[in-house]
Each structure stands twice: as structure tokens, then as C-alpha cells.
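Q: Joint fold for the lines below.
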Amino acid sequence: DAKTTQPPSMDCAEGRAANLPCNHSTISGNEYVYWYRQIHSQGPQYIIHGLKNNETNEMASLIITEDRKSSTLILPHATLRDTAVYYCIGSRGNQFYFGTGTSLTVIP
Amino acid sequence: GAVVSQHPSRVICKSGTSVKIECRSLDFQATTMFWYRQFPKQSLMLMATSNEGSKATYEQGVEKDKFLINHASLTLSTLTVTSAHPEDSSFYICSAHIGVYGYTFGSGTRLTVV
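A: Joint structure:
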């Protein structure tokens, strides 16, 4: 699985867009980029995933660069409930190895 | 959607005793489940891969005799922490692969060994 690098922490004002970057320069051609989040003392929650194209669902948007070496998760209108640790994972769908993630704090 | 139910959510046990954690797939069959451990303010660490009907595969550095994994059916995997010690206190999480959407995770078990 690809090694991912994320900033350790970020703040975002409530109602604003939160843009969370992830570097995955070693990702291989058949590895998807997955984003999960973990709210304190809970199991991780699936957010979105993509291979090459940008993706959008009811929770977020995922922008993947053309060379696939990095991606950005966008939460369009952050709420206080979006405060969590966000993990970016590169995987072919076998084992998931979690990096250190980004701790996002949404500020009122 | 695919749901994994994990029990208990919290357990306190005395040092030297064993604790069993259950992970059930509620509306799908999981031939493979995964067990993670998470210490405070750290990321999830994969401990082992549990395969239905066969032996589990452990990550490097994880003691297989201490963390016993049983996956006797397509809907149930169990993790038993044997002879627990305070340093085994942690948050244990199971997950199952659900195809292209990746994984679904249990809600976790907070183990405290006193």
C-alpha cells in the first residue's frame, strides 16, 4: 500500500470549506485513494474514495491530481460535528494501513 | 449498508485474566476480518488478518499466542487477549472488507487492564 503524508492538524471555521491535503507520491496505478474519519473513541467512518477522477458524494468531494501523487478532501460546509481525525489511505483493497492522519478542528 | 457489530464496547479486567472481543458482520458474510489496536493519540495499527476457517495472519511484532483470533464462521470473528496486562490496555477495532468501498469498521472496544 502507498505511504501517505498528511498535515498533523488543521482548523476550519464553521460553515467554511475544509480542504484536507494528502500526499501519496508512491501510489501505484491500481491503488485507490480512500478517505476515512474517526471521531473520538469510535470506529473509522468511510467518507469517499477515488482512482483517477474527481469524486463527489453527499459528504465530501475528492480532488485527485492528474499524476495521482496527491489529493484533497473537501468538506464544503464544515460543521462542529466534522471535528475528527481524517485519514487518507492508498490501497488496492486488501489490508488498510493507517497513517497519522489530520486532526481537523471546526471552530464555532 | 454493511454493518459490523463489535462487543463489548468497554471492558475492565484484572491483570492476568483473559478477555474476548466479538466482531459480527450483520448483513453480509465476511470471509476476512481485520483487527486493529489504537493507543491514545495514536493512529490505528493493524494487528492481524482473520480468515474464516483458517489461521490468522499476524503483523510483525504482534504476539499470536497473546492475541488469539478465531474466525469460525462467515459472520463472526473473535479476538481474545490472554493473560492481559496493563500495557494491553488499548482501543481494539475490527473491520471487514466490503468491496470497492473499502472497509466497514466496528465501533471499537475500550480495554482497561487493572
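Q: Anything notable?
A: Chain A touches chain B at residues 32, 34, 36, 38, 41-46, 49, 87, 89, 91, 93-101 (CB under 8 Å). Residues 6 and 22 of chain A are 5 Å apart (CA to CA).
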